[in-house]
Structures are given as C-alpha cells and as structure tokens.
C-alpha cells in the first residue's frame, strides 16, 4: 500500500456530477424562501470528509487502488445496491459499519485531495463560505495510510480552493474514534502534536466521533486534558446524537469543549438548554443525518424551535452527505419545509454560526458582511 505524500495529482472534478445524481428529488424545497436560503452565505462545521464518498466514487477508487470489496454483503454488488442499502440504516452503528468500509478505498494523497476539493467545490456552489472539515486519522493510520498522506492531500485541496473558490475559508479538525481503545486516541494525539499542525494553522481544533452509547465523556478526559495541556485551543465532541442529554452536560464539564456536535438530545433537559444558551455553546445540528439514522422519526421532531426560542446557538450541517441524501443546502431546505422559519430566524442562525466558527475576528467580520448583503436584498 503506498502512502507517498508527494503523490498529489490534480483533483478529479467529475465527481460533482456523480454526487448531484444521487441527490433526492427534494433538492429544491417549494418554500418561498428557497432562493433566499440558496443565496444565504453558510458556515459548515460538521462534515466528515470520509462521509462524502459516494458509492460510485467508492467503487471507482477501490478499482483504481486494487481494493477487494466485501464479498459477503450483497450491498457491495454494485453502486446501485449500495445506494439502496443506504436507504435503510437502522442506527448510528449500522451506518458506521458501511462508513468505515468506505475508508478502505482511500490510499493516496491524490485520493484525499480529490475527495476534499470536490466537497469544497460542491459546498461552494451552495454558498458555503467557511468550512470546518472533520477527518478520522486513526482509521487510516491503522490501514497503513500515514497521517502525512491524508493531510498532504487535504492541504493540496485547500490550496487549490484558495485560488479557485476565493470566498471560501477552510479548516481541518481531526476526530478521535470512540470505538477504538483510549490508548489509541493518546497515540493519535501524540502524533498530531509532534506534527506541529495544531500550532501552524493546519488543524484548527480537536474532536471526537464514532459510536456513542456507552462512551461516556469521562473515558476521554485524559486525552482532552493532555491536548489542552499541550496548548490545543479548540475542542468539540459528538454527543447527544443517540446518547442522553447527560452525556452533553458531562462533556461540557469534563472536556473543555466550546461546541457540541449534534447535541440534539440536549433539548430533553431544560437546565441544559439554559446552560448552552448562557455559555453560547454552539450545537452543530445535522437534520438529514438524524432522520436517516432514526434518531428521530420525522424532521419535525428535531427541536429547532425550542433551540431558537431559548437562544441556543446552532448551525445546520450535512454530516455525511454521500450517505444521507443531501449536502448543506438540502439540510437547510429540509428544515425550512418542516418548520417554515422566518427570515429573522435564518438571520439568527447565520449570525450564530459565524460567531461560533473557529476563525479570526477579521474573517468573522467578512462573513457577517456577506450575510448582511444578502439580508438587505430580502428585508
Ligand atoms: N462519524 C461520521 N458520522 C458520524 C455520526 N453521525 N456520528 C458519530 N460519528 C460519526
Ligand atoms: Zn458527525
């Protein structure tokens, strides 16, 4: 298996067409605010780059890289069969099984570059102007794809975006994986710290993802403490997706997090809602993900109105768009169709998302002025 960081080729742009092909027919919502929602400058804080591999791309990369597909699961008979399987996830863990198989096709820096650039170009077409992208180094390093191969590819995509997508800022956030033993997370942290990437602008923060039930925040306190002691500045963690609101509360008190990924179930605890509002902790909500992974029965069950009314800051994100049938615009549209929000509600969401971003004050001012220009047209 090669993992040469110099192996960065021009990204393969044709993937965008494949991705658009898989979007649901509901891509355009019928709401009168649709044009406004399309034009609204967006921040994406919760997208896993490995969650942007479409079945078509997975098959293509697997073939290019000589990867054998699982033979004991008919879902891997064809891209169409894999798409069909993605319509029937029963839980987070059921999804994660397929998500991590998807990693096996990613080998070279050029694979990570193509994947990342293509996501950025698609997100930009939906007016994402600031993207903070998660990636899962442990699940690559354990397959002998080195950290520096991943980051070389992602950095090459970021450099290309700086030229070709001029209004877009891009940041990267590694996530520790909760299905792996805690010592493996410490090893990852050591490697990341040794790279110097938390301190030279390559990595903007540190996160945690994967299975949730049974993975209480106290298990990871030593990792977060070590990162904090070493000078890492920004922390987040996936909680309150399947797990109870207590996990969110304990993550806030134990892990130094300034945001929570998902956090949907925080709404079950009125004291926690007040605490989130008071501390301006941002929740990075992922509506289509919650419906597809059966966290909620219907979009209307996501506590959007409760969070807005209680002044809990949140952003709306795509999580794993290739698996859940939509990128950020489709998530905005799905929320609008379910809740019929007003322009003022979206203004609050857009301003909160900028305030909660991990970027400079200057960049926040630039993003705010982009939002203001669009609001002026609509008010
Ligand atoms: N990794 C990728 N998507 C995830 C999700 N929705 N929850 C937890 N870990 C993930
Ligand atoms: Zn996620």
Automatic annotation (TrEMBL):
Superkingdom to which the source organism belongs: Eukaryota
The cofactor note from the UniProt entry for this protein is: Binds 1 zinc ion per subunit.
Q: Which UniProt keywords apply?
A: Cytoplasm, Hydrolase, Metal-binding, Nucleotide metabolism, Nucleus, Zinc
Where is it mainly found?
Answer: cytoplasm
- Keyword Metal-binding carried by entry: yes
Active site residues per record? 241
According to its UniProt record, the EC number is: 3.5.4.2
Site Important for catalytic activity: list residues: 262
Q: Which cofactor names does the annotation list?
A: Zn(2+)
UniProt GO BP: adenine catabolic process; hypoxanthine salvage; nucleotide metabolic process; purine ribonucleoside monophosphate biosynthetic process
The protein's GO terms of the molecular function aspect are:
adenine deaminase activity; zinc ion binding
Q: Which InterPro entries match?
A: A/AMP_deam_AS (IPR006650), A_deaminase_dom (IPR001365), ADE (IPR028892), Ado/ade_deaminase (IPR006330), Metal_Hydrolase (IPR032466)
An annotated GO cellular component: cytosol
**Domain spans labelled Adenosine deaminase:** 41-373
Specify the enzyme's EC class, one word: hydrolase
UniProt-listed SUPFAM superfamilies: Metallo-dependent hydrolases (SSF51556)
Q: Which reactions appear under catalytic activity for this entry?
A: adenine + H2O + H(+) = hypoxanthine + NH4(+)
Q: Where does Zn(2+) bind?
A: 46, 48, 238, 319
Q: Where in the cell is it found?
A: Cytoplasm; Nucleus
**Family membership:** Belongs to the metallo-dependent hydrolases superfamily. Adenosine and AMP deaminases family. Adenine deaminase type 2 subfamily.
What this protein is reported to do is described as: Catalyzes the hydrolytic deamination of adenine to hypoxanthine. Plays an important role in the purine salvage pathway and in nitrogen catabolism.
Known HAMAP family for this protein?
Adenine_deaminase
Q: What is the protein named?
A: Adenine deaminase
Q: List the lineage, top down.
A: Eukaryota, Fungi, Dikarya, Ascomycota, Pezizomycotina
* Gene assigned in the entry: AAH1
